[in-house]
């Protein structure tokens, strides 16, 4: 509860200041003259962590479903350059990590690297920025070793084939406990490829922490992690 109250107050204050300088519509619902309205700020400040298990057995912990206001706000960050939203999403990531990985100080959080094409299109690195503001212990050791197609237009099997062999770790991580971090998990193809690359260098992959997930057939179990 304290997390939600503190986060909501910070977000509301930032939104009001930005609206005075450059009036915009709310990223989550389109309300005019507010970069993030009070209702959307409260929703983003109160994530409901859920635990999902991929068919591969990889466990994904998500702060939100990729739907409604959180989805629209995340799209605004990724595709419209609304970088002020990094702050609330970083707090949501920290919250889901606290629930899913309570011994977070003993693991390294490894971001999925932004592709060169996505960086050229957006001008910023979404996953790296969110993780960087979260205060979680980050370790950027994954690199893209070949180009891939845009995943948005591909089916589940095509996504897996598209990213196969596209990531590589830059150093040995023998016995190191790691958590993969992404913004949105859809079919799990990208985080599955990241897990392969990390295990190849000896890492012990504990699971995935993400801002949001989409409900796809790649998930075999889905559990609400929010106490009460």
Please describe what this structure looks like.
It comes from Microbacterium binotii. Pfam families: Pribosyltran (PF00156). Belongs to the ComF/GntX family. This is Phosphoribosyltransferase domain-containing protein. The structure is a single chain. The longest helix is centred in the first third of the chain and has 20 residues. Helix 4 crosses helix 6 and helix 7 runs parallel beside helix 8. This protein is globular. The protein starts with a helix and ends with a strand. The protein is an alpha/beta fold. Strands 3-6-7-2-1-8 form a six-stranded mixed β-sheet, sandwiched between helices. The protein has a two-stranded antiparallel sheet with strand order 4-5. The N terminus is likely disordered.
Structural classification:
alpha/beta
Strand content: 15-25%
- Report how far the terminal alpha carbons are from each other: 12 Å
Strand count, sense and barrel status of the largest sheet are: 6 strands, mixed
Task: Round the Cα radius of gyration to an integer and report it.
Answer: 17 Å
Spatial strand arrangement across the major sheet: 3-6-7-2-1-8
Number of helical elements: 8
The run of helices and strands is: HHEEHHEHHEHEEHEE
DSSP, total strands: 8
Q: Regions with pLDDT < 50 over 5+ consecutive residues? A: 1-6
Helix content: 25-40%
Give the overall shape: globular
Average residue pLDDT = 84
């Amino acid at each position: 509860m304290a997390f939600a109250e503190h986060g909501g107050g910070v977000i509301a204050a930032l939104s009001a200041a930005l609206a005075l300088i450059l009036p915009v519509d709310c990223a989550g619902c389109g309300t005019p003259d507010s970069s993030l309205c009070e209702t959307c700020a409260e929703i983003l400040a109160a994530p409901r962590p859920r635990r999902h298990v991929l068919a591969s057995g990889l466990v994904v912990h998500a702060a939100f479903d990729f739907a409604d206001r959180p989805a629209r706000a995340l799209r605004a960050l990724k595709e419209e350059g609304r970088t002020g939203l990094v702050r609330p999403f970083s707090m949501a990531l920290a919250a889901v990590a606290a629930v899913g990985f309570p011994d977070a100080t003993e693991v390294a959080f490894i971001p999925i690297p932004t592709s060169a094409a996505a960086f050229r299109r957006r001008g910023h690195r979404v996953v790296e920025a969110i993780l960087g503001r979260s205060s979680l212990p980050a370790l950027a050791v994954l690199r893209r070793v070949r180009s891939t197609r845009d995943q948005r237009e591909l089916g589940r099997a095509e996504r897996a084939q598209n990213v196969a062999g596209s990531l590589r770790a830059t150093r040995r991580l023998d016995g190191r406990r790691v958590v993969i971090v992404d913004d949105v998990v859809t079919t799990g193809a990208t985080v599955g490829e990241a897990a392969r690359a990390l295990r190849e260098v000896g890492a012990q992959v504990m699971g995935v922490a993400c801002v949001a997930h989409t409900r796809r057939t790649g998930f075999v179990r889905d559990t609400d992690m929010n106490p009460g």
